C-alpha cells in the first residue's frame, strides 16, 4: 500500500531508465537529502556533527569504495585501511606542496594516487581468488603501513611521525585545520559523499558496473562473453581505491585533523569490511546502513545508561557496548546473512503488500 | 520472525532514546568546576592506564570529600574511555568540551597531537604531563599546551647523563653502544632527534630497535638483535603491554638489568614485576614520589578508598603510575587554585585555567602543605617555558618494589632548549598560519 508502483506509467525510455523509476524512492531520497542538507545543519550541535555525522559519512564513503570491489566485483580485500591511508598521505603531501590550491580539489586528487597503488596491488587478483587474494591485499596493508611509518618524506619529517592538517581556506571559508567550523566540514564531507555515491549509483547500473558483476558471478563466462578480466578487475581495484583514498583524506582533513600511521591500521580495514558485510554486499544503501550500525550505534549506546539514570563507570560502559554491538552483529548475520540492504528490501516488499499479505 | 520484529522495535526505541540523549547531555553544573578525565581502562594499554586513571580520579575525589573541592567549589569529574585510540579520544573531547571543561589530560601522544591545534580555538588548555609534543614546552608558540614537569627530550638527556655518570663521565661514552628500544609511534620516536644529536656529540653509537604497536607483545626478534649487537646500555621508551614484555625478554637473554633504563612511562610496578626475580636491578626514570608514605595518600585511603568511592585496589596505592596520576591531579588542582586566586572567581573557565597553569608555582613549602613533601621536585611554569625542564631521578626495582637510586638529575637544558625552540618554530611554520600568542602573561 505504502510502496506500490501501480499506476506509475513510464511514457519514455528516459523515464524507464531513470536512476529511481519509482516515485516513492524519489520522495524518500529527497526527504533524506533535505534532512542531511537542511535539517541537520540547522538543528544539530557540534558533538553530533563532529562525532557522529562526519565520521558516519566518511565511513559510508569508504564502505561504498570497498563494496565496489568486494560486493560488486567479488574481490575480497583487506587493504582498505592502507588505501585510505594512501589518500590521506597523498592529500597531505599535495597540500603542503601546493599550499594555495583548493583543499577540496586536493582531497579529490589524492584518490588518484591510491587508485594507482590499488591497481598495482590488484594485479595478483588476475591469478588468485577469494581468501588467497585477501592475503595478498593483507600484504598491501602491512607494506603501506610500514611506508607510512618508515618514509619520513611522507609526513614532512615531523618529529612526531604524524600528519597534521594545516589551515586551509576555500572561497574565504576555513575548510580544514582547527578553526574550521564543524558545519563547514560537514557540508564538504556531505557534498563529496553524496556526489560520489550518486556517481557510483549511475556507474554501477551501466556497462562498467555490469561487467564487474559479471566477473563476480562467473569470471570464465564473463571472459567468454568478451569482458576482459585484466581491465575490469583492475578498474574495480582502481575505482574502489580511489573512493577509499578520498574517504581516507576526508577522514584526516575534515574529521581528525591529525593522524598517525596507526589510524590506518588493519583495524580500520576490518571495520570497513564489517560495515560492508553487515550493510549488505553489493548494495550502495547497505554501505550507509552498515556504517551507521558500526559507527553510530556504539556512540549512542554510551549515552543510554546515563540517560536511564544508571551511573556506570566509563570502562563498564565500554565493555558493555563492545558486547552488545558484538552480539547484535552475530544476531543480524544469523537473521539475515545478506545484511541490512536485504532486510530493507524485505521491508519494502512488506510495505508494498500491506495490509493484505499473501 | 515475531521475535525479530520485537527486537527490531526494541533496537529502534533504544536508538531513538539514545539520539535524544546525545542531544541533551550538555548539562553544566553551575556551581562546580568540571574536569573531564580522558582515561583508558580497556585495550592493550589498560595495564598502564588503569593505575593512572585511578590516581587522577582518587586525588580529585579526595579533595571533594576532605575539603569540599577547591576554594569551596566542588569538582565534577567525568571519565571518558579512550582506549588509547586517537579517534575515540577526539570523540571524548567533542562530547565533553561543551560542558565547561577546564583542562584535558589525553594520556596519549596521538590524542595530544590532535588536541594541540584545537586548544587555542576552543580556549581549553591541554596538560600533557611528561608526554606529548616536546616542542609544546615553548609557551610563546603554544600558550595553551603545558607539559610540566619534563619533555621527552629532557628525559632522553637525563638518561645519557646518568649513563655518563655510571661510566665515570660523559667523555667515556665514546665508542660505547647504547641501544634504544621504543614503541614505534609518535611517542617512541619523539626522543630520537635528541638522542642522535647526543650520539654525535659524545661519540657513542645509537642502535635503534623499533617495536610496532601491533606486535608489542612479541619482541623476540628485537631482543635477538640486541643479543647480537651487545649494546652496553639499553634505553626503553615503552607503554602498555610493551613494558612487561620487554623486561621479560631482557631477562630471558640475560641482559644486565642494571644497564637497562626505562623512561618514566616504563616505570610501572606491574611492568617490572613481570620479569620476576631476574628483573632485579632494572632502572627507570621518574618524577613522582616512590611509595605510599605521604600524608595526602593516607587521606586518599581514608576518604576515598575506605569509603568505597573508588575502584582502586588499596595495594596499588603508591605504585609509580598511581602516584603519577596523583601528581597529574595535583597539578590540575593547583592550577585551579591559582586561577581562582588570580581571577577572584570561584567557578573558573578554560581561559582562567590557562592563566592558573601558567602561573603555577609548586614550591617545596606548598608541596609540604599538600601533604606531599618530597613527592615531586618543585615546579614553576613561566610564560616562556611550559615544561620547566625539571630534574628527574632514577629508581631501581629491588625485585619487590621500587626504590630511589639516584638524586635529582638536571636535564641538559642548554642542549634541549634550542632544539625545542627550533622544533616549535618548525611546527608553527608547517601549520601556518599558526596564531601568534595574544594571551596575557600572568607572571
UniProtKB/TrEMBL annotation, chain A:
It comes from the Bacteria. Keywords: Cell membrane, Membrane, Transmembrane, Transmembrane helix. It is found in: Cell membrane. It holds the Pfam family BPD_transp_2. It is a multi-pass membrane protein. PANTHER family: ABC TRANSPORTER PERMEASE PROTEIN (PTHR30482:SF5), HIGH-AFFINITY BRANCHED-CHAIN AMINO ACID TRANSPORT SYSTEM PERMEASE (PTHR30482). This is Branched-chain amino acid ABC transporter permease. It comes from Roseibium sediminicola.
From TrEMBL, chain B:
PANTHER family: BLR6548 PROTEIN. The keyword Signal applies. Residues 1-29 form the signal peptide. Pfam families: Peripla_BP_6 (PF13458). SUPFAM superfamilies: Periplasmic binding protein-like I. Residues 35-399 form the Leucine-binding protein domain. This is ABC transporter substrate-binding protein. CDD domains: PBP1_ABC_ligand_binding-like. It comes from Roseibium sediminicola. Keywords: Signal. InterPro entries: Leu-bd, Peripla_BP_I. Belongs to the leucine-binding protein family.
